[in-house]
Amino acid sequence: MSTQIEKEKSEEAAEESEAETEAGPQERRMSEKRARTEARERRRQQREQVRETEETVTLKVFRYDPEVEGKEEPRFDEFLVPFHKGMTVLDALIYARDHYDSSLTFRHSCRQAVCGSDALFVNGQQRLGCKTQLADLDDPVRVEPLPHQDVVKDLVVDMEHFYEQMHAVEPYFQPDDLPDGELEEQRQSPENRERIKMSTRCIWCGACMSSCNIAAGDNQYLGPAAINMAYRFAMDEREGENRKEARMRIVEQEHGVWRCQTQFSCTEVCPKDIPLTEHIQELKREAVKSNLKFW
Amino acid sequence: MSQTYDRGTVEDFGRWREFRAGMWAWIFHKFTGWVLVGYLFTHIAVLSTATASDPTVYTNTLQGLEELLIVRILEVGLLAVAVFHILNGVRLLFVDLGMGLENQDKSFYASLVVTAAIVVASVPTFLAGV
């Protein structure tokens, strides 16, 4: 059906053009004028379309400053930020800080999801500000500091506890025997590398710890990131036996792996897509294997 | 750590708007677990009083309960709770074994659908009465 109609139309157009070429100068001028008005109309429509897509995004940002009187009560500030294609939450925050309020405080550094400084609570979920496209979010975009951590100022949270937990699993190698020769390398098989590859991608942003509601209720719980760090070393074949045993003792204690109730929150929010729950489960099995003896 | 603002527990929980499948599964599992514990105690209480004397008391008690429409509706709810708890329990077993972790959300939805199907199919039987 539709193809037939199109064919008819094109035939009509062809007839028209034929008639025009045969017509005199008056008709030619008229047709040129018509073409010009049509082109002008088209350009105007295009401009309108551009103006329509040039929208602004409303940022609702959590503000709190304990050191300034009158800002001690937490509140939300609204910023209207002009949107451009490919704009991230971090870009919008930087725009708001540079153009509207220079006191707006947030951590950021590399802007390419490597440094792990700008984990934020955006529209009800932990996300990395530099990795989250504004186009994917509903307006208004609500930006808050990470939950379950103390707020120092605006979007800056106190990460001290998170770092303490990360160090609690003693994240360093202690091989049983070093290779001979001063410059000899400690080699790892490609299979083993594949096994721990994902766990090495952690950028210490703290999004998982913040999303875990077990970690929220139990401050001593190591948290997904720290357990993942333990996994990274425990599963590495170059790690020494003694060291591994000592680390497993830390991991399998009361506030270690057994606190995990497999809610998968950490796995869902991890900006580096680390299968955190899988790693925790694997360490649980490891702990059972080393403790369960039938003889 | 100098002065920091603690946002408190209420705000912490209320601001969550994007719960994912795994979290819902956990919440439902806890909820159904507590419902089942509550039912177990009522069950024991009712049966222990009903079976105290002669068998007619037992029959009368159960028939009296089954005559009430609310009890029959509650029974449908109990079935729903039990079936979901069983299915999600199986799902958690697989999670603990480390099998199909990347499909954990799908298995949760599957357990919801199966629960719904079984419950809907059971409605005529339960509501028909004694």
Commentary on this structure:
- The complex is a heterodimer of chains A (295) and B (130).
- Chain A has helices spanning 2-22, 25-53, 89-99, 160-168, 190-197, 207-211, 213-217, 224-234, 241-251, 265-269, 276-291, and strands at residues 56-63, 75-82, 119-122, 125-128, 141-144, 151-153, 156-157.
- Chain A is an alpha+beta fold.
- The longest helix of chain A has 29 residues, at 25-53.
- Helices cover 44% and strands 11% of the residues of chain A.
- In chain A, the strands form two sheets. A five-stranded mixed beta sheet of chain A has the order 2-1-5-3-4. Chain A has a two-stranded antiparallel sheet with strand order 6-7.
- Chain A has two domains: 56-156, Roll (Ubiquitin-like (UB roll)); 160-178 and 187-291, Alpha-helical ferredoxin (Fumarate Reductase Iron-sulfur Protein, Chain B, domain 2).
- Chain A contains eleven helices and seven strands.
- The radius of gyration of chain A is 30 Å and the shape is elongated.
- The model of chain A is unreliable at 7-20 (pLDDT under 50).
- In chain A, strand 6 (151-153) and strand 7 (156-157) form a beta hairpin.
- The N and C termini of chain B lie far apart (67 Å).
- Chain B has 130 residues and is mainly alpha-helical.
- In chain B, helix 2 crosses helix 4 and helix 4 (69-96) runs antiparallel to helix 5.
- Chain B is elongated.
- The mean pLDDT of chain B is 85.
- Helices cover 78% and strands 0% of the residues of chain B.
- Chain B contains five helices and no strands.
- Chain B has a single domain (21-127), classed as 3 helical TM bundles of succinate and fumarate reductases.
- Chain B has helices spanning 8-14, 21-50, 55-67, 69-96, 104-127.
- Chain A binds chain B through residues 64, 66-67, 74, 121, 123-125, 144, 147-148, 150-152, 158, 160, 213, 216, 261-265, 267-268, 275, 277-278, 281-282, 284-285, and chain B through 1-7, 12, 15-18, 20-23, 25-26, 92, 95-96, 98, 101-102, 104-105.
